[in-house]
Amino acid sequence: MILHNEFGSDNHSGVHPDIMKAIESSNKDYTIAYGGDKYTKRAIKKFKEHFGNNIEVFFVYNGTAANILGLKNVTDSYNSILCAETAHLNVHECCGPENFTGCKLTTIPTLDGKLTIDSIKPFIVGIGDEHMAQPKVVSITQPTELGTVYTSKEVKDLADFVHKHEMLLHVDGARISNAAASLKKKLIEITRDVGVDVLSFGGTKNGMMFGEAVVFFNKNLSKNFEYIRKQGMQLASKMRFISCQFEVFLSNDLWLKNAQHANNMAKLLYENIKEITDLKVTQKVDANAIFAIIPKKFISILQKKYYFHGYNSEVRWMCSFNTGEEDVLCFANIIKKTLSGK
Fold this sequence. Notes:
Layout: H1 17-26, H2 38-51, E1 56-60, H3 63-72, E2 79-84, H4 88-91, H5 96-101, E3 104-108, H6 117-120, E4 134-141, H7 152-164, E5 168-173, H8 176-183, E6 198-202, E7 212-216, H9 225-231, H10 240-249, H11 254-273, E8 280-281, E9 289-293, H12 296-303, E10 309-311, E11 314-318, H13 325-340
Parallel strand pairs: 2-3, 2-4, 4-5, 5-6
Antiparallel strand pairs: 1-7, 6-7, 8-9, 9-11, 10-11
Helix pairs in contact: 1-10, 2-10, 8-11, 11-13
């Protein structure tokens, strides 16, 4: 087996062979552009098999676009969007949410990346006051940027609370498949069934080449999204190359198998490093990420052998659908030797 020397991100992995075959197959003929093709129709049908018929689905190139355009379609510029301070919306989207939606992004401190009703309550203020931003959406990431997973009950409790305040619940689901695999639930059970209004559904981090989807569980919320998508420069002319991936991705449990493998590799890594002296895992390993604190002097030494991200003394190790057991065990062994000074 070829070692990948890579625990930086599931974005760094290649494309699943079945997805690559689908792209190649869809490249053999002419077809209507901008989503009028048979591949897009079949992909939308697959989404409805998983989430129910009364939904609207739109394909975009990337997760940032899915988040921002989905939120733009359900907000006005005088609204505020509440999210964890660690949210991708806040940290890694280059002020895109503020720029494109015109909304105020209200960030909330958390210990594990997860919002709670108690943490949200203090920020739902000024409703009806023309001098203040009007809270409209709570956005959560599932799994969170710290690798933790909301239970179905936690999401439902949040949804019930925000709906009580006439607000909406958005989910950044760049790794939603990993959450479903972790919870051993169907996709619909952790989204629509628990009150999610808008979902950014990810594929790129779980074996696709590119492409995400915006799923509206209330069709009224999707009104005019096709125009927002076009204005947002995310209407693909050759949309079939996104759609054909989703058709395969959502067939024969490929989405689930990929996510289960990534999660299992993270758990395997955790089991082999958790007892190492001078290493402290800082977050529950729910999905395919491990966050740990190690002495800062060892980070650069390890990074010469394996690529991963480090934040001061905290590191993040990610596993993907094609991370191999040999990769994990070799990496764990190198961590042990490095931290022990051998």
